Amino acid sequence: MRGTRRRAPGGERGLAPHWRALLLGGAGLALAGSMVVGTLTAGPGTPREPTPGTGTTEATRASLDEETPTRVRERCGVEDGENGGDGEGFDPAESLTPSREGGPAVDAIRERGSLIVGIDQNSYRWGYRLPESGDIVGFDIDLARAIAEDLLGPDPDIVFRAIPTDQREEALEDGTVDMVVRSMSITCERLDEVAFSTSYFETGQQLLVPRDSTITDFDESMAGQRVCSASGSTASRWLERESHGAVLLERPNHLDCLVLIQLGLAEALMTDSALAAGHMGQDPSMRLVGPQLTSESYGVAMALGKDDLVRWVNAVLDDYRGDGPDSPWHRSFEEWLSGYLPDTANDPPEPLYRD
Amino acid sequence: MTQPPTAPPASPPVLPAPRAEGAAGSPALRAAPPGLPRRRGALRENAGRLRAALRTEPGQLRLIGAVLTGLLLLFGAVTFGQLAERAESARTARESSQPLSRDAASIYRSLADANTTAASGFLAGADEPSEVRNRYIRNISLASELLVSAAERGRGSPQSAALIARLNAELPRYTGLVETARANDRQGLPLGSAYLRYADERMQGTLLTSASDLHRLETARYRADLADARSWPWLSTGLGVASLLALGWAQRRHYLRTNRVLNRGLVAATTAAAVLLLWLVGAQAMARSSLNEADAGAGRALTTLNDAWTEALLARGAENLTLVSRGGDSTFEDDYLTSMDRLLADPDRLAEGLLPRAYALTGEAGREPVGEAIRAANEWRERHDEARESELAGDYDDAITRVIGGEGSTGESFDRVNSELSAAVAVQQERFLNAAQSGLNWLGGLPPAAVGLALLAAAGTVRGVGLRLAEYR
């Protein structure tokens, strides 16, 4: 008779990205350090300075050496250790200018008559399955439908394909899916493997704790507490770099961390505030504490080289974000996310273009 | 009879002289040197008298009679002891330790089945059929009942007791997690599936490991019992051979001294001793072959079948959890493939699969259900591939129907594998019990017979030697 077969909690999975985590950590430190040289306007004591709408070159600078780290935004094309001051490199959220001209990628989808979208079925309020009806719904799903309607006309044929986090890039590369709309942050590293649309949501890493927690911020109040994060996530890298004396736990999925907290096996979890909204939706006794540590943008991911599709999606996003509070973006936000996120997240981000 | 012929009632005549000499160095004797020569003289005198008595024929006859009777009684007593011990081991194996091992396997299976069923019920959500729910409840109750009885019966071993205590403590935690998963899922929260994954992790990591350890422990114990029952009783065999040789020598001596061929008493004793020795050798040989069949035949088939059954349950659990995790995790599909591979193996190295191996190990009578199980498992594998295709194509609902639906689903194939293996295990269990019983039958009659025959042989010796002694009066 055979005994266990599955990995120990947070076992091997946490080891592989170790080197990557260290490298990224080093890069982030260098970046943050250089930023603080450039600007000292945002002092150490300043509360977080959320910059909805812009969140780009003017994004907050801070140093990890400071007591309260404020939002750090990644910049691409800056070498490790290089003094990448203001304006060096480029923002990862920059994409191609919108156009509905079309091309081979768009034609292929139209010929097929259906759009295959990689999604998450487990992310409450973003992409999840209603058990009664079996329908997949959420903020990401609304956007995927809007794109499909624009490409294929009303009542389009959409195939939703659930893909694990670590297979998103691969699924695009081998053509299993046309695009991934799955709360995917645009990062410099991912830009090497996939193409992103413009940003459709701004978020950042934050701590989520139960109502009665003694943790007040990403600081010494975490000492001795068990803090959970998803293996290989940005959150886990931050925690590894700066644990503030916390005991770190890693689980395959950020939702597994919520289970641990509810069972009293962890005191806090770290993820981005957008996914945290889903957690608070499932457990109203959870709350966000402290500032957002990073500034990240969600984008629709497509395979590298499908520029016509990227431009088309950017055009859809332009309309989707709209101008006023009555845009599809706002309506979807009202339906799925309003009330779970800080007020600063109430508006769509401004698109950035690199050409 | 055993008292030496010419011994004076005072000091024991068998006490050898060197012992008295050795004692001379002790402080007590050194404190009283005057007494020493006198005492040594008495011992020497007694030994001398004994030697003198042994030089006469009646003295020698008395000694021979005493030795022969002692040897025969010892032969009987040792045979009784050794064979009773072996019969007891065989009885323990058949009636107590093997059933404990079987129960431990049942505990494992009901836990694994509960885990699998919980996942099936979860996938069905609000449409969970009542038979799925009932099957889950039945499995959990069966596991708790078996744990209670195992705790009672396995009290002797602290290792088993620790494992059973752990299982008892973990089981309610597990069921709590499953109910939380169910409640969250009914609310439409993906958290439910995270709870079910966590419950599965507890099941795999704690409950099933402990149950598997318990099974291994109990299996090792009953196999040790069978090995004890099979071990050859060398001491009684040796004593039997020695008794026969001694009797033979005594009769030859009798023949040489008297020219009379037969001494009825000694002949009767020889016959009784020979019967006992033959019985001992024959019964032990037959019992060994039966117990070998129980251990290596039915026992090995049972172990392999249990392993296969376990693997089928694990494969089914992984298959269900692939869908529960809703594409969020591909490790479950890998687990399914691993388990299926263990169960059936690839076509080119078919013999390595647990089911084909079990097929080879089961006797003619028990072969049919195993063959059926292999067919059903192959069908399951094909159906799973189709279901997996649907899932990958994004048709989640179709995948669910193909996995937990009725006719044509992988669930149907799995249920068939499950019931065929259950039948196959029952056949092998029967085969085991029969073989162990036949071993027990061979061993069981011998101990009382050993006592009777040894007493008969001893009485014969006494009678035979007594008749010869009477001629000197």
UniProtKB/TrEMBL annotation, chain A:
Domain Solute-binding protein family 3/N-terminal, residue spans: 114-326
Transmembrane annotation, as ranges: 21-42
Keyword Lipid metabolism in record: no
Keyword hit for Transmembrane: yes
Residue ranges of the region described as Disordered: 40-105
Biased composition (Basic and acidic residues): 68-78
Sequence similarity: Belongs to the bacterial solute-binding protein 3 family.
Descriptive protein name: Glutamate ABC transporter substrate-binding protein
Taxonomic source organism: Streptomyces triticirhizae
TrEMBL record, chain B:
Membrane-crossing segments per the record: 61-84, 261-282
Composition skew (Low complexity), residue ranges: 17-33
UniProt KW keywords: Membrane, Transmembrane, Transmembrane helix
Location of region: Disordered: 1-40
Record's compositionally biased regions (Pro residues): 1-16
Protein name: Secreted protein
Organism in which the protein naturally occurs: Streptomyces triticirhizae
Lineage: Bacteria, Bacillati, Actinomycetota, Actinomycetes, Kitasatosporales
